[in-house]
Amino acid sequence: MSPRKESSQVRILELLADEAVFGLGASQERELQRLLRAVPGFDRDCMQRVATTVLLAGVEDRLQSLPPALAHSIAVGERPPRNQHTSPLSPSSAELSEP
Predict the structure, then answer these.
(1) Integer Cα distance of 78 and 18 in angstroms
(2) Nearest-5° angle of CA 91, CA 95, CA 96?
(3) Residue (of 74, 11, 12, 24) closest to 48 by Cα position
(4) CB of 71 closer than 8 Å to CB of 64
């Protein structure tokens, strides 16, 4: 592989990562489209599937550390009742009532 093609592929990966995390501005989107045309064998969809798989693998680990009822609600797509879940960052009602 030529050094130019390799550097184009690296830049494509950087732009795809930025797109996934932050979104792309107009100039970055144009650059990405130009690079994808210059590297016609690059499989953008495949890279997005890989990124999604990696992201979901990280989420699964976090789901396992949640309370079982909350993890179940998330897994089945339900919203837990607001009064049964408090954020670990928010004070409990006992903490709020202390002088």
Answers:
(1) 30
(2) 80
(3) 12
(4) yes
Residue showing tokens 């797509």: 77
pLDDT band at 85 (very low <50, low <70, confident <90, very high): very low
Tokens 């009822």 -> residue: 69
pTM above 0.70, yes or no: no
Domain segments of the chain as ranges: 1-42, 44-78
Q: Which of 50, 41, 40 minimizes the C-alpha distance to 17?
A: 50
**How far is residue 90 from each of residues 1, 12, 18, 63, measured CA to CA in Å?**
53, 40, 31, 19
Q: What is the pLDDT of residues 34-57, one digit of tens each?
A: 999 998 888 888 887 777 777 667
Confidence at residue 64, expressed as pLDDT on a 0 to 100 scale: 59
